[in-house]
Design goal:
The structure is a homodimer. Chain A is built from 9 helices and 15 strands. By secondary structure, chain A is an alpha/beta fold. In chain A, strands 1, 2, 3, 4, 5, 11, 12, 13, 14 and 15 form a 10-stranded mixed beta sheet that branches. Chain A has a 5-stranded mixed beta sheet with strand order 8-7-9-6-10. In chain A, helix 1 links the parallel strand 1 and strand 2. The two termini of chain A are 21 Å apart. Chains A and B meet through strand 11, helix 8 and strand 13 of A and strand 11, helix 8 and strand 13 of B. Chains A, B: It is an enzyme of class 4 (lyase). Chains A, B: It comes from Seinonella peptonophila. Chains A, B: Residues 4-187 form the Prephenate dehydratase domain.
Chain lengths: 294, 294
């Protein structure tokens, strides 16, 4: 059976790369959507079987739009995670491949990519005007279709190659340890690729603390700490009902079916917290881009 | 002596209102800057004495740009906080004051204001195209200078009044409990307004946990919990050195000079955490817009 997998497009984004990596051995049709809400709504409404979106970047932190939509608008579990190294490339139209970088007047890219390469930009072409695009791939497309424009773009190697642009330089991000977390959501379980079987298992929780109970967060963390359950991520997001009212999003490194996790969840509820399991899923870390097939 | 106070402009933004509220009894010159980094840099470089920026909204959560700049780029303490009710108003050019709302084809406003009024927009003019502006005040300015444009703007009452626009409706935000937190930073202490003396005192901390010490956050919260020091806010922000490395930003409701806080901070450091005090300051909550003087 052919699955359809929605992802944050257009083609050639890092989400596209992560989606191919997660599902490359499947008989799948990958369908790009223009925004994160569109991607998540596609699977929520059954238009797609699965969806892949970014959830955290090393420089920008959490992708709040993804988390807020998972909390407030869709009810589809997280079924997998991939932690993927982002290699930003400097792209140029072949007509200008040999020009010195100080000649360029514009740089197109997504705000996150610009933020990841800020020091490099200041070093190599501080004179250039920054033009924000909706995706790194869109910046590459603009470059391709405007050969007279003295512009650069920052994006994936693949975005450059598929548009016949010249990869002027690879790995131009300021920090080499530049990973992004992507999550897959869906109503059905899937088997991920064989070679990715050595993984952690995570459970993502949305915890609402009882109001007027100072120290409730401390009690919640105590239930994990006593059991030596490691928390890889904790953050607060607004409930939107008033300033100072938060959900806590907690990623615990254990399956929700493990006896220790079942005990922790039961106790947190007994403390008066509302607990929603956003998903319990395998997490893959990709350390080498070479492991990307195709 | 005249103080100069930088704020996130242009004139007529909510930050402008909050700045006037905090410093209305001072002999101050208020200077608008176009971006949050510009405001914070002005005081960091000594161009301004003080600066006021938003730090958290009820719907969007933390203003990451403010927090990341306080962590990474400026070294100026927080000296005060005001929690201020945001009343979004529907603004219209007087030429179109009596038109039905379904006639309008565009709505101008800042993305945060649009997010705060999303249900209202869907109800009263779902057909309108949303055009994001850099500030709510900029949207009002566009409306004022284009009388032929069949457009609305969402912004402050004052932004409408000062531009001779019609206030079609007040308090159009989806949640009435719509407060925003603003902080003032500066190298010198100031006396705030007399009538605002009934306040909480807060201390904001940037805590870096020791690496490879599972449960460190739990230990940090324990040092506050045992002393019954209430934490009004806790969040994680990326260190930007790699995925999974975070600073924790913690707001504790006690002065940094209190014996309990001194004990807590000493113990957190002894646990191996790096602790930076971002400021220890009075926090004012404004419940009625009527208390806003001119």
């Amino acid at each position: 059976m052919v699955e359809t997998i929605a992802y944050l497009g257009p083609q050639g984004t890092f989400t596209h790369e992560a989606t191919q990596l997660l599902f490359s051995n499947k008989n799948s049709e990958l369908v790009p959507y223009p925004t994160i809400p569109d991607v998540l709504t596609a699977v929520d409404q059954g238009v797609s079987d699965l969806a892949v979106v970014p959830v955290e970047t090393a420089v920008g932190g959490s992708v709040n739009l993804t988390i807020d939509w998972l909390i407030h608008h869709v009810d589809v579990p997280i079924i997998g995670e991939v932690i993927y190294p982002i290699s930003q490339c400097l792209l140029v139209h072949p007509q200008h491949a040999n020009r010195p970088l100080q000649d360029f007047v514009r740089i197109y890219s997504h705000p996150q990519a610009i933020a990841q390469c800020q020091e490099k930009i200041d070093e190599i072409c501080p004179q250039a005007e920054i033009i924000y695009t909706e995706s790194t791939a869109q910046g590459a497309t603009i470059l391709q279709s405007n050969p007279e424009d003295l512009a650069l773009a920052i994006g994936t190697k693949r975005a450059g190659e598929t548009r016949n642009l010249v990869i002027k330089e690879e790995d131009i991000q300021d920090h080499q340890n530049n990973f992004t977390r992507f999550i897959a959501i869906g109503h059905k379980w899937v088997d991920f690729q064989e070679e990715q079987k050595s993984v952690k298992h995570k459970t993502s929780l949305q915890v609402t603390l009882p109001s007027d109970y100072p120290g409730a967060l401390f009690q919640v963390l105590a239930t994990f700490s006593w059991r030596k359950i490691n928390l890889s991520h904790i953050e607060s997001r607004p409930t939107k009902t008033g300033l100072g009212n938060y959900f806590f999003i907690i990623d615990a490194e254990l399956s929700h079916e493990h006896v220790l996790m079942r005990g922790a969840l039961a106790e947190i509820k007994a403390l008066g917290c509302n607990v929603r399991v956003l998903g319990s899923y395998p997490s893959f870390q990709v350390n080498e881009l070479q492991s990307l097939k195709k």
